[in-house]
Amino acid sequence: MKPSDEQIKQILGLKDKILEKMTKHQEEIDFLTKNLDVLDTILKQSSFSKASDLIKSSTKISEPIEDSLDTNQESIPLKKNSDGSVIANAFVSPDQVSIILENNLDLTETVPPLKSFFIDRIIGEMKKKDDNDVKDGKISKESVIDCMINKNGDTIREIIIKNYRQKERVNEIINTATWSLARMIENLE
Fold this sequence. Notes:
Number of domains: 2
Shape: elongated
Strand order of the largest sheet: 1-2-3-4-6-5
Number of strands: 6
Low-confidence stretches: 47-71
Strand content: 15-25%
């Protein structure tokens, strides 16, 4: 039995949706693969390097962006996976990570997934662990991770994460911030 014209149209529509989803998932797979490669490189270096040297892989020294930043902080570019364009720069110091968005980005806190994923899920889980460590007496209340967002009007200019305390957290913060910012940009397009 031969399919009708209407069935053929439905099949073609389904095929288009499947191809679209495959493309989207392939971009995410490429992003995750790239991050796994970076993490593998960092893990290989960790047995031979000081923690402060780990951040230097694939980074460049840049000029300070604001007076609040140390003059010797390193700039880690956060790039969109789809085209490799820089969307922000992360500056890591011993007590905080500052993520400064590119000036041409007009992202607000209301654009998903910043709050739902990055702040509530990633930073929120780190905060819960820190709160438990405070209860257990392992760390002081002042050492709990904290996230602040500096804005110009409604537009996000900088995300500051204080008291990250562990180098593993820096990697997770930078990777998830990159993913979240890229998705925010996609959601506005």
